[in-house]
Amino acid sequence: MGDHLSATEYRLLVEHSPVMIWRAALNAECDYFNDTWLQFTGRPLAKEMGNGWAEGVHPEDLDRCVKHYLDHFARREAFEMEYRLRRHDGVYRWIFDRGTPFYDDAGNFAGFIGSCVDVDNRRRAQSDRERKGEQQLASARDFEKWIVAIVSHDIRNPLNAIAGSASTLLEMTDVPAVKRAGERVLRGAERIQEIVADLLDLSRERQGSGVPVARARTDLRSICRQVLDEFDAAAKDRALELRCEGEAVGDWDPHRLAQAISNLVGNAIEHSPPGSPIQVKIDARENTVVAEVHNEGHIPPEVLPEIFQPFKSGGERIGRSQGLGLGLFIAQAIAKAHRGHIEVASTAETGTSFRLELPRNSAGPT
Ligand SMILES: Nc1ncnc2c1ncn2[C@@H]1O[C@H](COP(=O)(O)OP(=O)(O)OP(=O)(O)O)[C@@H](O)[C@H]1O
Ligand SMILES: [Mg+2]
Q1: Is the CB of 34 under 6 A from ligand 1?
Q2: Measured between alpha carbons, how far is 366 from 209 in angstroms, rounded to an integer?
Q3: Rounded to whole angstroms, how far apart are CA atoms 119 and 147?
Q4: pLDDT at 192 over 60
Q5: Is residue 366's pLDDT more than 60?
Q6: Alpha-carbon gap, residue 74 to 72, rounded angstroms
Q7: Predicted confidence band of residue 149 (pLDDT cuts 50, 70, 90)
Q8: pLDDT tens across 74-112, in order?
Q9: Atom 13 of ligand 1 has which residue's CA nearest to it?
């Protein structure tokens, strides 16, 4: 026996292969199906010939399949596709089909030959897995909604009561020890109020509704001034500089912008070398206004791409209370709600700059 299979051996192989085999002539119409194919479809060869096979393809898959087949046939390129094919018992099964061009002995293109296997079990297992994944995701979302409901109603209300009562007590007393205790209660309650508000913003942004904004004619310069004044009082060793060119007025939510600027300036102070200066520069252009917050020190390049994601806090402030890592995520959500965006540039030579860019008229279509 030689190294090669004889024509008869090849024919036997093809006829009795567990794989379904078809062949198409130069006109792209089928002129051969092996026994395995005919047994699968339960139809006689005469019915499958030409384009007859297409009658067994699931109507939802037919157009896609025919297009894929003819496109590749015209280009004489091998193709792979999956479609549902009706079995002899009427059940549609997913089939993997691979077609390749073939050439005659003289090297002329002679048509396509294809082999198919039933991959229905694999497809079914895969879609079961996908369905399970979706269910898990949905229940995680439900859980998040539930937590948010608790946070927003059951925690916010008593918290507001604590902060309000602490303020009242502070107004009513002159006793130094009571005053100190009252101030501690108030500061603690205010910090929790901020965290609760951040968590609500996080969840709104994640559920796709975005942070709510109430637009009014707003001067970004005076907002930056206010924010810097507040930080100035708390960070006395830091030089906080504000420069502004042009009229920085736009149609924005003043509270939300104060929150975004405060997150950026707070970061600049918190995440830069002690005692180093911070600059805020406002560049008012024709249609947009850009606020840039700059500090010394830089963010490692490998951390930079993730910096706007929630709960990414690169702080090494061991022993100090660490932030949740929501500040930049929320600042960016606020920028987006105004149809703007935030960019960061950070190198060892130039330090770190966050640029908040806002269109003056932010209410248009997104
Ligand atoms: N101006 C900056 N300079 C250097 N590093 C920064 C700066 N801003 C942010 N970072 C880095 O990015 C991380 C994420 O910042 P983000 O404001 O989102 O969270 P956070 O400040 O850690 O916590 P939170 O703002 O929720 O209190 C910070 O932990 C810090 O490592
Ligand atoms: Mg922060």
Answers
A1: no
A2: 13
A3: 42
A4: yes
A5: no
A6: 5
A7: confident
A8: 999 999 999 999 999 999 999 999 999 999 989 999 999
A9: 313
Q: Is 305 in the pocket of ligand 1 (CB under 6 A)?
A: no
- Taking a 5 Å cut-off on Cβ, the residues next to ion ligand 2 are 267, 323, 327
Q: Which residue ranges form the domains of the chain, and what is each CATH number?
A: 7-118 (3.30.450.20), 132-206 (1.10.287), 216-359 (3.30.565.10)
Query: Of 14-23, 232-241, 334-343, which one has max mean pLDDT?
Result: 334-343
Burial of 199 (0-12, 13-18, 19+ CB in 10 A): buried
Distance CA 215, CA 250 (A): 9
Element (H, E) at 262: helix 254-270
328 lines ligand 1 (CB under 6 A): yes
With tokens 């109430």, the residue in question is 214
Tokens of 57: 């393809």
pLDDT digits (tens, 9 = 90+) for 255-274: 999 999 999 999 999 999 99
Residue 106 Cα distances to 24, 82, 260, angstroms: 18, 32, 73
Distance CA 2, CA 256 (A): 83
Ligand 1 geometric centre to CA of 142 (Å):
29
| Ligand approaching nearest to the C-alpha of 354 | 1
